Amino acid sequence: MLAVERRLKVLERVAEDQAIEVSTLARDFQVSEMTIRRDLRRLERDGFVRRTYGGATTHLVRTFEVGALARTLHHAREKRLIAKRAAELTVGVRAMFLGIGTTVENFARLLPVREDLMVITPSLAVASLLGTRNVRVIIAGGLVRQDELTCVGASAVEAVRRYNTDTAVIGAAGLSARRGVTELDDRDADVIRGGLERTERIIVIADGSKFGAVAMSTVVPIEQVSTVVTDSSADTEEIERIERAGIKIVVARPETSVPRPAENGETRLTDIRTPA
Amino acid sequence: MLAVERRLKVLERVAEDQAIEVSTLARDFQVSEMTIRRDLRRLERDGFVRRTYGGATTHLVRTFEVGALARTLHHAREKRLIAKRAAELTVGVRAMFLGIGTTVENFARLLPVREDLMVITPSLAVASLLGTRNVRVIIAGGLVRQDELTCVGASAVEAVRRYNTDTAVIGAAGLSARRGVTELDDRDADVIRGGLERTERIIVIADGSKFGAVAMSTVVPIEQVSTVVTDSSADTEEIERIERAGIKIVVARPETSVPRPAENGETRLTDIRTPA
DNA sequence: TGCAGAGTTTGAACACAATCGAACACCACT
DNA sequence: AGTGGTGTTCGATTGTGTTCAAACTCTGCA
Predict the structure, then answer these.
(1) pLDDT tens digits, one per residue of A99-151
(2) HEC sequence for A75-135
(3) What is the pLDDT of residue B256?
(4) Which residue among A10, A274, B17, B20 is the one 20 to 30 A from A42 at the CA level?
């Protein structure tokens, strides 16, 4: 069995059983416990599981990821890089609007938890990820779109428009200088547009494959975007076109300059962590 | 079992029974009493239980800051039975309000999918369960309560009050003839009360342990409840008291007609697992 | 009520077991 | 040669069981 395949299955097991032992996994997958520990450490780093003494637990809402797990783990490093880089841009932010999609979910998963942060989002996945991590979340409400589990419709738009936010972090199905930020579903686009109405700064996070792509519904023209965070696979010409429109583009690169930014914050999760 | 897992379950037991002996816990969890004492000491240090001579007690109000993990596994079979029985009572329903809690989540999981069904709920878990199963769901919206992932606050109450439903299916932390349906968190209670405002019929689903229990916030007096679905562990006297108030009580029993589907010994695992 | 004595419960201390991560070596593949 | 994955060893950490003296509860008796 491939290593990636095993990790995926490990994650499935953890999500399924809520809590599982290292020894059990090692036996079931016929590998050493050390290997399982390494797998779990990785999954913890990516925000999927919580490590505990002797095993791991999860806070994932089971029903989401199961099918989407493979997709989520794919290109995990790039996604993590983008998410981390974007998180650095939002350090002081108090009120934040978060959009939808797996990229934003990754961002939510890797966002350092802060007491003073308030998030508003139409995504059930983002809301549950942050909710279980003790971030104060407001969910839009309204009709739940079936495949993506996002809130859509008039009341959702109404809800997100009520809040003033410092920063909005959104994903995109397409991102181009000509057509701006585009989404596939127009109802999602409506809600996101509503969320951007009263925000000071718009950060778009999108992997390279979205550059130059145009989806059906325009969310905002490119000029309104403040910063785009992407990875090195993004098309250079499109990057230039967007930059010419006055938008700042941040390309997340695998920790080149800094040798190791001090891993001393290693939090042990042997204790029962309870939401205050 | 993981040590963390055991501690959570110990806490759950203390919360459920109000008071419990060290010796009982040691026997049930197959560990030495010293280990239980250490667990309890830890839980006391964190403010979850109060240590007494020979055991521990707790205050009902505090109990529910425990993670969802602890409760999901407990009484899994009973909850499944109840859910199935309750689903039978809602066959013709077009518009339904669903409450919160693991019992209701089970109900949502086992509810046969119908095209013409519309559900409104303040629970993120229920919404995602049904959303992925192609049921049309409206989620309340508002502040997300951290531990349970439920929508609370004024806008959530506002949202659920807008809809007219045929039937409401709710769980309960406590259910008694004197105090009616009670919940632990008053903000949850507010939202549920709102959801019951414009419904024609209230079905309460609650396993036996809830009978006679009284939690802090009353959701509705018992007279307004139409039907209660529970299992055979429910206290007979309390059942009678509730029935005397004119409420119909349905006791879900493990498939009576079938003699016994062969105990192949393998069945133990499925009991521990959460229902898929 | 007060009190002695039996039985139970407790926590400290110790020993042992399980689990941990770091470090190193090996392998497969590029 | 380099990269990523794996298993093994080993010292440190964490969890568990046992023993034992002290503390506590309960009961019966005055």
Answers:
(1) 999 889 889 988 988 889 999 999 998 998 898 788 999 999 999 998 889 99
(2) CHHHHHHHHHHHHHCCCCCCEEEECCCHHHHHHHHHCCCCCCCEEEECEHHHHHHHHHCCC
(3) 46
(4) A274
Sheet containing B248-252: give its strands across.
A150-152, A142-145, B136-139, B118-121, B95-98, B165-170, B199-205, B227-231, B248-252
| Coil/strand/helix, residue B36 | helix
User: What residues contact A185, with CB distance under 8 A and at least 6 apart?
Assistant: A145, A148, A152, A217
Q: How far is B236 from chain A (nearest CA, A)?
A: 34
Per residue in B47-85, pLDDT (tens digit) is: 778 888 898 887 544 333 344 444 444 556 677 788 889
Which pair of structure tokens corresponds to residue A68? 């989407």
CA distance A130 to A114: 11
A214-225 pLDDT tens trace: 999 999 999 999
pLDDT tens readout for residues A30-66: 999 999 999 999 888 887 888 999 999 886 654 444 4
Distance B253 CA to C29 C1' (A): 59
Rounded to an integer, what is the distance from CA B201 to the centroid of its chain? 19
Whole-angstrom CA distances from A5 to A1, A10, A70, B173 are: 7, 9, 9, 41
C-alpha to C-alpha distance for A239 and A40, rounded to whole angstroms: 36
**Residue A159: its chain B contacts at CB < 8 A?**
141, 155
Alpha-carbon dihedral A163, A167, A173, A178, rounded to 10 degrees = 110
Which strand (E) or helix (H) includes residue B161? helix B154-161
> With 80 as the cut, is the pLDDT of residue B29 above it?
yes
Q: Do B131 and A144 touch (CB under 8 A)?
A: yes
Nearest-CB residue to B66 (from A127, A137, A274): A274
What is the 8-class DSSP label of residue B2?
A: -
Place of tokens 């010994």: B265
pLDDT reported for residue B61? 41
Q: How many CB atoms are located within 10 Å of the residue B54 CB?
A: 12
Of A79, A65, A116, A58, give the one whose Cα is nearest residue A210: A79
